[in-house]
Amino acid sequence: MTNISAIISDLKYGRTRLLQAIEGLSRKELTELSIYEGWTIKDVLAHVVGWDQRVLKTLPLMLQNRASEVASVEVDDFNRESVQSWRDKSLAEVLSEVQSTHQRILEILVSLDHKEIDMRRERHGRIITIRSYVIDVMIEHDREHAAEIELWRKNLELSIDPRAAEADLAQKRAAFLAAIKDLSEADLLDKNAGGTWSVKDIVGHITDWERLMLNAARHIHDPSLPVVIPVTDDENEIMASRRTKESWEKVSHDFYEVSQAVDSFVAGLKMGDWTLRGPYPWPNDQGTLAELLWHITAHYTDHLPDLAQWRSQKINH
Questions:
Q1: Are 9 and 268 in contact (CB under 8 A)?
Q2: What is the pLDDT of residues 20-67, one digit of tens each?
Q3: What pTM value is reported for the model?
Q4: What's the CATH architecture for 4-158?
Q5: Which residues are registered as beta bridge partners of 197?
Q6: Residue 39, phi-psi category: left (phi > 0), alpha (psi -120 to 50), beta (remainder)
Q7: Cα-atom radius of gyration of the chain, to the nearest Å?
Q8: Of 39, 42, 222, 239, which is the most buried if we count CB atoms within 10 A?
Q9: Largest CA distance in the chain
Q10: Candidate CATH numbers 3.40.50.1360, 1.20.120.450, 3.40.50.150, 1.10.10.10; the one for domain 162-316
């Protein structure tokens, strides 16, 4: 018969393996990419929290010999409600709850003895024990999701296509350059091109962030190089303001210089390099080199709608 300390150890191992399975994943991987249809990793964690919270309601009833009062649930509905209840909460809040609810369960179980763990209790015509109804299910649940996440991560990395990523970067950069082509000096300095930013401001902003992301990529590729200090929103505004007095020629020169440096870095990557992981140059995020290149590419796309609208308005006027 397994002792209580071994049970606690098995439960801790299951939860540790689950958390290790998501270790190093980026914010995008955790909150935007689907692991199951309609579910992100964050949703999976919220689902785990939902069942842990049910355990916290179930254990006291079982210990008070009131197992018959443990409510039945329709699993699909319960899962849906558990996930939905955390949709508007931050990833940090979900992660905190994953650990705190589990710890509260352990604190209850560690105070029990084998008699209580294996005592047979009747619930709706069925005999259950804390071991069979709670402990074994929790251990299997954590290990099942950990294994699925580990497989998902492996398949995600296998899906990386370096040549397609390079081509996408070239295409998106070309589309951005086409959007600012043949502009007059006055147009380049018009502060209505993107909110309160001019084309010069936007190009300077993209240049500075591309340099930051390139330096972060270099550190991920070679950890002996300096770590890039994450840039906050406030610091982003300060960084943009530093280019206010620079000429278009200077900003344009910097843009092409950084673009060429990015292309040179990417061209030198080997297949295994794309899955290397490390910190990104913004707070509380990390991930693969492949995703960091995706962020460089997406940054061009982010600014295209404003530029297209601005150019359209100028033509119409």
A1: no
A2: 999 999 999 999 999 999 999 999 999 999 999 999 999 999 999 999
A3: 0.91
A4: Up-down Bundle (1.20)
A5: 194
A6: beta
A7: 26
A8: 42
A9: 84
A10: 1.20.120.450
